[in-house]
Specification:
By secondary structure, the protein is an all-alpha fold. The chain is about 75% helix and about 0% strand. The protein has helices spanning about 1-25, 30-35, 40-65. Helix 1 (about 1-25) packs across helix 3. The longest helix has 24 residues, at about 1-25. It is elongated, with a radius of gyration of 14 Å.
Length: about 70
């Protein structure tokens, strides 16, 4: 579960950076990498970011409000 939290956090950081670039500079990093038209690659990136946020939401609910990033 801890590994999944790290993966989810990294994917959300990538998604957050992408949205920050869109908001500040109107530059979509995912579109720059995979092309302007929706592609399988860009869809996978967006789906992984979506699944990451769901994972962390349910992880916080399940753990009583704590995201665990280390072994106890």
């Amino acid at each position: 579960m801890i590994v999944m939290n790290y993966i989810a956090f990294i994917l959300l950081a990538i998604g957050g950076l992408n949205w920050g670039l869109i908001g500040l500079f109107r530059f979509n990093l995912v579109s720059a990498i995979f092309g302007p038209d929706p592609t399988v690659g860009s869809s996978i990136v967006y789906i992984l970011v979506f699944l990451s946020v769901l994972w962390l939401i349910f992880s916080v609910i399940y753990s009583g409000g704590v995201i665990n990033f280390r072994n106890m």
